[in-house]
From TrEMBL:
BP GO terms, sorted: transmembrane transport
Keyword Membrane: no
Keyword presence, Signal: yes
Domain of life: Bacteria
Key words of the record: Receptor, Signal
Signal peptide span: 1-21
Organism for this UniProt entry: Halanaerobium saccharolyticum
InterPro entries named in the record: DctP_fam, TRAP_DctP, TRAP_DctP_sf
Name this polypeptide is given: Tripartite ATP-independent transporter DctP family solute receptor
PANTHER family in alphabetical order: DICARBOXYLATE-BINDING PERIPLASMIC PROTEIN, PTHR33376
Amino acid sequence: MKKVLVLVLASLLIFSFAVSAQEMTLRLADNQPEGYPTVVGAKEFARLVEERTDGRIEIEVYPGGVLGDESSTIEQVQFGAIDFVRTSITPMANFEPAMNVLSLPYLYPSEEYMFQVLFSEVGEGVLDGLKEAGIVGLTWYDSGARSFYTADTKVTSPEDLEGLRIRVQESQLMMDMVEALGASPTPIAWGEVYSALQTGVVDAGENNYPGWYYNSHHEVAPYFVEDAHNRIPELIIMSKITWDKLSAEDQEIIKQAAVDSTEVQREAWDKRTEEAKKLAVEEGATITTLNAEQKQAFQDKVKGLYPKYSEGYEDLLDSILNFEMEE
């Protein structure tokens, strides 16, 4: 009788474990609002995972920062309180300094060049460096190209920026870059940029097309130059605690679903960018496109910063600069 009871209990335990292994509800945090391209990508990721696991694994997406700000949610991922976070690579440099190299100004000739680098062994190597911090890097997302926009000056060369007061983020790299271009970096809170441009506290700002247009900066700084000084990718990261609970098969499903979601996210970003650009022009803004030679002039001005911000990661920098694109 005891043997029968033991067998029954063992069977119940095995069944219970099998059910829990099959069914799982995970949470993904994003501080951007509903409909934003990263949230669109995150929801596509969730859809693909649910589809490819026949509903065994469900991912609930929480946009709008409802689970905490970016720093808080990254910390929660480390301790397994949240399973996934969509984040900029900037705070991830605290865990993997190689991320700083990916943020260097004028590093990528084009968006496609950047994504080929990120989805090569070069990018995977950077993601691997996050594991020691209890984080698994899954895929890269787009956040557009940051460019300069000015109140009164049409910019076609670095010389046109000389002496201008340019609003920048609280970032030493950004301040060093603006100084290298001959301008004066002026850190100002994002919510104060419109009035600073309007009143002449600063002469210029910098951001991507959606950031420029949807915050109405085009009204007070209508000259946008496509210098694309920064292409800073974003990430979907996962808690290693959650990752280690998964079977190898489910790990592969989640990793591939994340990678596949990037295409939808990039399409959503491109659509948002083109819409912002079109509307700004219709409302009287001026767009300046630079040729390869003009872009090179900007890069030449800031290359002196590369050694400072790639110290210890010179091989990574060389791999990016000398990367051979696939056709």
